[in-house]
Please model this.
Amino acid sequence: MGSPFQHVPKAPTNPSREQKQRAFDVADLYEGPVPVGDVGQGPALPLDEKLRQAYFWIVNTAIISPHYDIEYNEGPAQTFTLGDTRSPLSLPSGQSYSSYVLLPLLTFATRRKCLFIGGPGRGKTASAVLMGVLAGYPVREVRRAMLHGHPQMTIADLLGNPLPADLVAAQRIEDIRIAWRKWLGMRVKIIDEYNRIPTRTQSALLTVMGDGYAELLDHIYECPESAWYLTANDDQGGGTYQVIEALRDRIDVIVQALSFNVRFLDEILTRIEENVHPERLVPQQIIFTEVELDAMDGAIRAVTLGLPIRRRIEFFASQFEFLEVAASQFEYKTKDTARLAGAEWRSLVSTETGKDKMQDLGSQTKNGLSVRNLMTVLHYAKALAWFRGRAAVELEDVRQVLPFVLSDKLVADTESPFFEADGHRSYRTDRIGWLRRLFDLACAEYDRLDLDRRDPVAELDLEFRHGLDGVSEAETRKRLAKIERHISEISKGKKLYGHIYEDLVKLKYLHQRYTNYLRWLRTR
Amino acid sequence: MTASAFQDALRRDRDVFNQKFAEARRRRPDLDPAAFSEFLKSSVAELVESAAKVNPDRSLEVAHAAYDAALTLVSERLAGSGGRHPMLDALFARLLPKLSGLVADQPNRVVASLSNAVFHLSTTPGARGGAFLESLESVASQLPSVTDLLRAGELAAWRAGLAHLRENALAAGDALPGEIASALLGAAKADWSRLRALLAADPWYDPSAPDAPRPRLARMVGAFRGFGGVFPQPPRAFTHERQLMVVAGNEVWAVFADAFGATLLRADPARLGVAAPAPDRAPLALPNLGRVTSLAYVPKTVALTGDASHRVALVAVS
Model:
């Protein structure tokens, strides 16, 4: 044990059978009960190990969050059924994590944007401050640089002020120097109660969040790559101002501060009695330098995501955008078409008859997934796999991060028959559980269709990806015929579902590419 | 007496120091405030004061590093009143103040690394923590950087009994000024290149006793675990890739031995391909040779002679 608040869990924090016993290392002479924490010196741990140590230090010492809602199993888990609603309680057999700590840490590692939601006094701001300290900033600096949303917040409060002397003396606008706010240059940016910021100021914030620069009087301030933490008492616009949609859309993950478990009241008591502030005692070993943050980002991006996993993500994502009655032209049969037209949702979907809405996963949502949403899912899945010490993303990594990324992105149609079914009513309020269930259902359908082994569209796509160089006219015609034959087969089934629609759009694309190629061959 | 630089540091970050102690005590209720306070006064204060003389701007960092290390060592009952390893107290009282410039430069790295090294020496059977401190004290004023200090520490720890450091220590010696390397091995006037060649050629060469007789019983290592040793069963020796090994029960150990000491490091039986102990053979009874006067080895054969016999015992080995 080190000095307890300075104690960082020993590596390996996620031991596995594959890990070989370490050979003797002379550096062991200087490793022992006293932590050697000077950054950049001594034996360097792999960054994923360091991030795990940071995670375990936070959950063991700093944040009281006994909610292990990101579950991993190595072998069967013990499951119990409890209460009138027959709620399952599972005891995971693998190393599992608390989303309230893990997702902000993954945000830190990937330098994306995380929103903490939950009632007042649940430690949202304290958690965000910890992330700033992990980036190497003193607590005082993190607190001073934190923006506090309030109804009178101006763009000057947000970005900075022109120097008064220059305002008087300057002959040209470019001669006016700007005193930029310090937070703009920090690698961890914290905005407390962001839904209390006036709408006009939110727009200026959007530029900083979305594009990474601030603009004032024709002057530009380029912000460094940074992790963002925002807090709100709720994410339903319950603040003073409605949050503009574009700003909400820039938020990558949402984590909820779960209720305090009163069995841990003694911890609170100790903190009061002994005036303990964990953020002041973050051990040096888990502080990340700028170079390490860059390296961590690179390592996460390098984690592979194999075809079988990618196909399941594709299959899941393909379920939601399709809305057959939204248009007559095939490409426009989407929920976005209906939204842009301002169509009344309920009356529109009520015209869609004949499909089994319990089977149609698309009927559970009012929208589809954007490119940004999908990129975020992929990035966080890689980050989670990397955090667990894996070189490749596993299906469970996707399953675990997906609900936190999509929780306010995929809007549930709570009047869908799915939510009326036995055991499904709680999904109206439990978005994380609903999204996880949705992904499970998509995977089950994927398995039922045996798409891992028999996926004609994937085969056609693979064939096309080999390139058209040297493909003969006869071969091109053969492939065109194959595409047409497959579309014909699909058309024999009477029902159109989201994934079939996506396949058809892809087949049309392939058909067009071959058609163009054929035309080119003929003109040679 | 508590020195002023330390007092000033404690005053400046009083809340944080108090929180560290409070949290440590919460986790280790048996942490004795009086013992900790005494350790601060007797061992930490002087260190902070000496570092402050070299670089007053670093006294707060030094105080934090020394305080954290002290809190760990005292709460674990490794140092301080009733601590299991008095050499750790000696490290703070004797050696660290002599390294004040290096401590001020990188306080945590120096204090923690040397504390850990002394801990290893104190917990390794046969190792001599006192010799480690003496060696480093003798060259403390000549070490220009923390990196050189840690290199010197490898040589000093090797000489103090950590035989497994041999190869690394010789390499560390090459990176140090020759006179410092030689001094650390107890041969201050020796030319390092020559000394190094002798050490590399013969593990039983001891610069302080170059003419020690041979054969001689140099070391006895191991002992029964039930009596505080390491082996659960009588061990058997073998070699693996030119490394001397022993197997005892299901456990395998690498044996490192030379003129400075002998150490046993646990090895992974699966990795070495010795998952199970070798089958029991009939114990070999040797004729009464008296005290062994010579031993010679050629492949498959060991020859032994003794002062009580005119015969040579030839032992067939695999």
